[in-house]
Amino acid sequence: MSTAWSWFVIALSALNILGLVWLLWYTARRRPGDPKPEETSHYWDGDITEYNKPMPRWWIQGFYLTIVFAIAYVAWYGGMGHYAGYSGWTSQKEHEIDKAASDANLAETFRPYDGQPIDRLAAEPEARKLGASIFANTCATCHGSSAQGAIGYPNLTDDIWHWGGEPQTILQTVLDGREGVMPEWGPVLTSMGGDNAIDYTVAYVRALGTPGQSLQNDYLASQGKKLYDGVCVACHGVEGKGNRELGAPDLTDRYWLYGSSKEALRQSIAKGRHGVMPAHRAMLGETRARLVAAYVWSLSNPPGGKKPVPASAPAGSAH
């Protein structure tokens, strides 16, 4: 708030208080020539008269006391522009005190799990329960309440991990985030293979996700392989198995983060993609990040040992 606005608020508050004092004083006294309280000429049913008597003195004094209380309150707690009041109280300080108390309670709750390995936490029901609660408050916005993701947001319940599904790798993802970039290859591919280059590459990428498909009778895919070998192989590998160090997905598992339709793949190849998993180290801290990482790891590595069904959705679906 600027100094001018601060003085405006102070002046407005002072005028309101003085105006109330004057109005109370002016209306609480009778003046010479005022009609008597019963001379209102308001009558009903012949014997019911409306009077206009002054308010009782105790009520008037009580009103004055409320004004004195308001002045003392503003003097102590502030409330007029930049003036902070004699107490120095602010809502920000109050919030910081409450937050410190709440953080202390949370720290005590999470203390038994400090530094515990992810797989050990995943085996403890209470730890998984806490991790699920943290997930619901922090991660479900993107990955969904069931952790099955959506277009552009990975499914955390299957066996597909673009950056690796080891416990420590998941913890690193939660703490420091990830940034997956698929460059815009449209101009490069077009310069190499002409106007149909993107369609050729799409055909080959779709063929990679179709086991047993031969390129001998698929002209588009066979042309796309040449382009793939010249551009895409650097990240996704010769066999299309991807590279977890780069976050480059496996193109043979039929899991498609942004959809596997021809249009979705065309968009990915021609225009690129930029996926960001925000870092949560500052927000959650080490222990809470461990708990939520343990919960996420348990979704694909349940304590009973039953592994999730591998992703094998139809080619036209999207995860």
UniProtKB/TrEMBL annotation:
Primary location group: membrane
Species the sequence originates in: Pseudoxanthomonas gei
TM annotation in the entry: 6-26, 58-78
Organism lineage string: Bacteria, Pseudomonadati, Pseudomonadota, Gammaproteobacteria, Lysobacterales
Domain of life according to the entry: Bacteria
Cofactor mode of binding and number, as noted: Binds 2 heme C groups per subunit.
Stated name of the protein: Cbb3-type cytochrome c oxidase subunit
InterPro entries in the cross-refs: CcoP_N, CcoP_N_sf, Cyt_c-like_dom, Cyt_c-like_dom_sf, Cyt_c_oxidase_cbb3_su3, Cytochrome_c_Oxidase_Subunit
Pathway: Energy metabolism; oxidative phosphorylation
CC cofactor: heme c
Subunit structure, interactors included: Component of the cbb3-type cytochrome c oxidase.
Role according to the record: C-type cytochrome. Part of the cbb3-type cytochrome c oxidase complex.
Subcellular location: Cell inner membrane
Record keywords, A-Z: Cell inner membrane, Cell membrane, Electron transport, Heme, Hydrogen ion transport, Ion transport, Iron, Membrane, Metal-binding, Oxidoreductase, Repeat, Respiratory chain, Transmembrane, Transmembrane helix, Transport
Family indicated by similarity: Belongs to the CcoP / FixP family.
GO molecular function: oxidoreductase activity
Domain Cytochrome c: residue ranges: 126-209, 219-300
